[in-house]
Structures are given as structure tokens and as C-alpha cells.
Amino acid sequence: MSHIFAAPESLVAAAMDLQSMGSALGVANDAAAGATTGVLAAGADEVSTAVAALFSGHARDYQTLSAQVAAFHQQFVQTLTAAGAAYAAAEAANASPLQAVEQQILGWINAPTMALLGRPLIGDGANATAPGQAGGAGGLLFGNGGSGGPGGAGGDAGLIGNGGNGGSGAALGMFGGKGGNGGLLYGNGGAGGASGTALAGPGLAGGAGGHAGGLFGNGGSGGAAGDAGANSPNADGGAGGAGGRGGWLFGDGGAGGAGGGGGGGFPTGAGGAGGAGGNGGWLSGSGGFGGAGGAGGTGGVGGPGGAGGTGGHSGWLFGNGGAGGAGGFTTTGNDGGLGGAGGDAGLIGAGGAGGAGGNATANFAGGDGGTGGVGGRGGWLFGDGGTGGAGGFATLASSGGHGGAGGAGGLIGTGGAGGAGGTGGLLFPATTGGTGGTGGVGGTGGWLFGAGGAGGTGGAGGATAFNTTDLTAGAGGAGGAGGAAGLIGNGGAAGGGGAGGEAAAATATGGAGGLGGTGGVGGSLIGAGGAGGTGGAGGIGTGIVAAVGGDGGGGGAGGNARLIGVGGAGGTGGSGGIGGGLTAAVGGDGGGGGIGGNAALIGEGGAGGAGGMGGTGTDPGDGGDGGAGGSGGSLFGSPGGRGPDG
Length: 646
Hints:
Elements: H1 8-37, H2 46-117
Helix pairs in contact: 1-2
């Protein structure tokens, strides 16, 4: 017995195409009718008249035949359209009975497991609605877990399926629910629920993300934490929920949730820590990002910002480490939060970047910026280290945060660059501007092959306020040292020192420039030393009367070579600040050049750095001395030349 299969959508589409074709042919026939049915004779003779009459007659016959064909075409289109509508109506009529049959069959299949375990074999778990109620579990064979009610956990999946999302407690001031776990074979973990703001007391932790399935899937993201009670004293913000783990074979870890803000009572509370990122799958997968730290409480002397969450580690074989979360900021008189450390890679992959330190923004009492997080380690076999996080900045007479160190490379890989130091705060109400943060140290290069990471730049010093006198702006932060190489590779270049703060008031002195960092040591077998960092420029004097420029920072020493390789060049000294004012404008002295790095066995010594130029003014500053060159190799190599004076 033969069967006919019809697709109603295709029949309707074909009818529409035929309708368009008929319309186009009708327009063409109408356009040609006038010129072809009344052909003029080429001359007045009988032959020309007969030929014209013959062609005109053929054209009239064609128009008659075309009208008959158009009528048949229209009838065919109508029949085809009606057939498509009839098939569609038949399918719609059969849909409800088929769905009912499907539900009956699923009911028979699920009946034994529902009776024994209260759980279907195939089907999604029910979504919860009541506060604190967990979502239903998914089918044992196939099905997703249900979402939790407010504050309730998400349901777990069975063999194949995604975990349900944890319920949010934000509207009712409750904890966020934990995300459900993915299926044992395949499935993603559910997201953790966000927590609500506490009516009083500490903030509530965010819900943790659910873990991925046994073999494949991504971990769920952690929920955001709740803020502490608005007027509660010593009440810290809640911690962000941790991200879920990726599948055992493949899958990325979930991101951590953000920390909650501290309470505003007296004394105020600290911001909550960000949640840690979930680890990647055991075989392959990247770690999740760490959550951002919460803001410190406001009111009186504010609480410190919360620390950023740690980035998740990658899978054992492949994958990158997750980035650390940023530290939380603070607004009144306390320190910014620490940046979270980047996650480590497994066998092959890059380390995660460290999170930035939190900023210390204040209206009347300053705090220091937070220190940046350390970069994660590169893969054991191959991979670069993660970049260190930048230090947070300060706003009032406090120091900027230090940059985080770069992560080490693996067996083969470059060390991560150190993070930049944060900017120091403005001089108010103290007598000295805030010092810029120190740049982070570059990461160590791969044990077998790889260059050391570059050092971070020092932060700029804080300026003086325009309405103060006889005060000193903040000094620039020192540059970070370059990372050392492993067996074969060059040492990392050092970071430059930060510029000194500006002397914006009369008789004020600009801040000294920060020292340049020391270049990294070259490879233990082969490799050149890294270049020393440039000294920071001295702060310029912009006050109307007798503003003194700050001295330039000294250049950093070049890195030494260990066996075969040239020493690194010394860094250039920073230039002295320009003196300001209409009278007695004193320029700052230039910084000295850095010493060149030494060669060990075979190689040239590094050249000394040039001295910085003295600052201009009615009483200009002195130039800095050039740095001495490094010594040449004991077996072969000449010493480096002395740098020129400024």
C-alpha cells in the first residue's frame, strides 16, 4: 500500500509562487497587446497590408489563448491553496488527540518511578512557587530540574538535563537558593539565586552555582550576595556565591557572584567577598571568573571594600585559568578591597589575570587603594602566566594600591606582566600627598624556555591642593622588577617609576618621581638580562609663587645575565620637575641613571642609563649622573659603557 505525505506549508508557498508568476505573465501580455495586435503596414501596397493583417491576427489569437491559460492558472492556484488549507486543518484536528496519546504514554512510562521514587523517568521537574521550596528533580533518564521558589534550591537533573536555577531571595530579603546539578551524563549546572538586602545585620550570601553533569557541561554561575542592613553597625556584606564545577571530562566552571555592600551604621561594615569561580572540567575546560568584591559601608569612617573572588582553575589537560574578581571600593576613610588571584592552568593553557584592587574614594578621610591580585600560573607543559591586577587609586592623601605580581609561565611560556600601581591621593587634609602604588613584579618565565614578565609601572603621586602652602606632593611609586627567565630566555623589562605629584599651591614642592624597577635576570643557561625601568619624572610646580619642582626618580638597574648573555641596560633617570611661579621657581634635580647589568661567563655588560635632565626655572635643577656600565663576562665580553649625564 502506497502512502502520500503532504507538507501544508510547502503547498501554500508553492501556490503563492504560482500566483506571482501568473501576475507577472499577465502584466507582460497587457504591455505587448497594443504593439502586436495592431501592426501597421510597411507600405501602401497590397503585400504590405496583407503581411500586417497576418501578424495582427496571430497576436489577437495569442491574446485569446493567453486569457484562457490565465483562467486555468487561476483555477489551479485556487485548488492548490485549498489543498494546503485542508491538509493544515487535518493536522490541527489530529494534534490534540496525538498530544493526549503522548501524555498517556509518558504517564504509563513514568508511573513505576513516580510510585517508587516520586520522580518521573522522562520529564522536567516542576518549578517551585512557595518561598524556600526547592524545584522538582528532573526525570531519571531525561529532563531538566525545576527552578526553586524564592530562596529555594534548584532541582537536580537525572541522567541528561540541566539543573534548575536557584530561586532569588531579592524581593523577600532571603538567601539565594543553590543551583541544581546537571545530569550525570550531560548537563549544565543551574545558576545560584541572588540574595536580598538584609533588614538588619550582616548581608546574606548568594546561592552557589550548581555543578555540571558527570561528563559534559558547564558549571552554573554563583548568585550575587545581599547588602547588609542599611543602618546596622559592624555589619559586613554577604559573600558572593561560588561558581559551579565544570563536567568531569569537558566543561567550563561557572563565574562567582558579586559580594554585597557593607552596612552603614557606626562603625560601618566591610564589603562582602566575591565568590570564587568554579574549576573547569577534569580533562578540559576553563575556570570561571571570580566575582567582584562588595563596596564598603558608608557613614562615618567607611568600611573596607570586599576582596575579589579567586578565579577558577582550569581542567587538568586543557583550559585557561579564570580571571580574579575586582576588589570592592570604599568611600569614606578605609581601604579598597584586594583583587582576587587569577586561576591556574592545568597542563596546557594560560593563567588567569589577577583582579584589580578596589578604589578608595573619600570625601574627607582617605584610605589606601587595594592591592591587585596575583596572576595565575601558566600550564605545566605550555602556557603563559596571567597578568597581575592593577592597584586601586586613592583620592585623599593616601597611597595607591600596589600592582599584583604576574603569574609564572609553565615549562614553556612567558611570565605574566605585573600590574600597574594605583595613583596616590590628593593632599588633603594631610601635609603630604599620597604615594603612588608600587608596580607588580613580573612573573617568572618558563622553566625550560620563556622570557620573564615585564614589571608594572608605578603609580603617580598625589598632587597638592591649590589652596595650601609649604606642603609636599606625593612621590611616585616605584616600578616593578622584571621577572626572571628560566633555563633559556631573557629577563623581563622592569616597570618605570610613577611621576611625582603636582605642586599646585604657592611655596609647595612637587613630589619625587618613583624609582625605576630592576630588570629581570636572564636565563640560567642562555639569556639577556632585562632592561631597568625608567625613573619617574619629578612633579611640576604650578603654584603662582615659588613652587618647587620635584626630583626625578633614579633609573632602575639592568638585569644580570647568568651564564651566556648580555647584561640589561640601566634605566634612564627621570627628569626633574619644572619650577613654578613668577619668582623663585626652583627646578627639581634629574634622577641618576641605572647601573647596567653584569654578564657572567660570556657576554657584554649592560650599558648604564642616562641621567635625567634637571627641571627648568629661575633656579634650574641639576642633571642626574649617568649610570655605570655592567661588567663583561669572565671568559669573553667587554664591560658596558657609562651612561651620559643629564
